[in-house]
Amino acid sequence: MMKLNWKRKIQATLTLIIIGWATPVLSTPIHLLIDFLGNVQVKKAEWKDFIQAESVTTLSGEDEVMLGNNASVTVYCSDRNKWKVEKPGTYFVSEGCPEGKGVIRLCPDCNNQTIRFPGLREEKLKELPFLISPRYTTVFNDSLTIRWNEVSGATNYTVKVEGLEGEWEGETKENQIVYDGKLVSGRWFDVEVSADSGITSTNEYLNHNYGWFFVLKDEEAKVLREQVAVINQQELSQEQEGLILAYFYRGNRLNFEAIEVLEGLVKSGSRTATVYQLLGDTYQRVGLNLMAKKVYQQGLALTVEEERSEVKAMMQLGLGVVEYVLGNRDEAAEWLEKARVNYLVLGKRLNKEDEELINDVLGKD
Question: How far is it, in rounded angstroms, from Cα 28 to Cα 30?
Fold first, then answer.
């Protein structure tokens, strides 16, 4: 039986070691503005002015919220407690949310610049059975459904999952299959999908191998499940709970879980731009640029009337990066310039990597 490419396997192992996927990482805690009523404005530490609050805004302890008369705001703190303010005034988030060991955190490697290297052009990518999930993620020791891009003209797919304990193989006419093989905790697995037309998911990987997943160690999985159970039992709306869980999963590199939750919110008809921004960012993080493009476009359609919106600027930047990676330079230039303008309106300086990418695409020194 043909084995998977060991060169890719070694590369993936080194990636795991370098960025520390096999061990828990404590990243920056974040708090979430989950509800507000009336005139509530937010000023992040790097902004020059207050702007109107947006639903499910991420905050740090250094950020401020300002309430007008008869206004209220609820912040979901990183430690899973809620802080509600109902009196007019200006408050630092740290007044209600402690900066200790929080559970809700930024994803440890969200600034990974390897996802920004141009890859296959959009037209070529659509022709491949590229892996959708589980992809570039840690997972719980549960049954998995493997999904991939449906290829025009293909009538049969062969799926191989290989770990140190051996290889599992399955065939299907659909673009998904249930993996019923072993999932050994603390181990990683490589996934390859082949269409009967002769093309494989590995044809996608020009700069980065995304075709693998890592199974959580039992003790870590137990702790994370307990933390999820606490969130599930709190008084939250479906959308609030979904977004909180998505941030929680991302902070623990459970991209597979985060995507499932956010896709569910999109399918339910969510009108909250943050849902689309976060799903687009998560798709982009795991190299699913075609899917990120569609979701960013959906989210931006919800923010057409917004003039000062961080979420809008984030989606414009994300869409610009995605277009660049997909080889659509003109479209990338358009969206990156819009993002730059909106960040200037917010008074926020772009980080060095974003500024360099924008200048490169726009042809500026």
Answer: 6
Mind listing the pLDDT tens digit for each residue in 55-67? 899 999 999 999 9
Mean of pLDDT over the chain: 89
- In Å, the largest CA–CA distance within the chain is 71
User: Among 3.30.559.10, 1.10.150.20, 2.60.40.10, 3.90.1150.10, what is the CATH number of 118-215?
Assistant: 2.60.40.10
Write down the residue that tokens 């890859």 correspond to.
Answer: 119
Could you tell me the residue ranges of all domains in the chain? 31-95, 118-215, 218-362
Radius of gyration of the chain measured on its C-alpha atoms? 21
Give tens-digit pLDDT for 198-217: 999 999 988 789 999 999 99
Long-range contacts of 18-21 (CB under 8 A, 24+ apart): 19/108, 19/109, 19/112, 20/108, 21/138, 21/214, 21/253
What are φ and ψ of residue 36, in 5° steps?
-155, 155
Which tokens in the block code for residue 331?
A: 């479209």
**Separation between Cα atoms, residue 359 and residue 8, nearest integer Å:** 33
Homologous superfamily of the 218-362 domain (CATH): Tetratricopeptide repeat domain (1.25.40.10)
Nearest to 317 by CA among 346, 354, 263: 354
Q: What are the pLDDT digits (tens) for 125-141?
A: 999 999 999 999 999 98
Is residue 14 pLDDT above 70, yes or no?
A: no
**Alpha-carbon distance values, 83 to 91, 97, 117, 139 (Å):** 12, 7, 41, 31
Examine domains 118-215 and 218-362 and report if their fold is the same. no
Q: How far is CA 241 from CA 65, 164, 197, 236, 252, in A?
A: 22, 37, 42, 6, 17
SS3 string of 104-131?
Answer: CECCCCCCCHHHHCCCCCHHHHCCCCCE
Lowest mean pLDDT among 76-85, 110-119, 279-288, 350-359: 110-119
| Residues in CB range of 301: below 8 A, 6 or more apart | none
Single pTM value for the model: 0.91
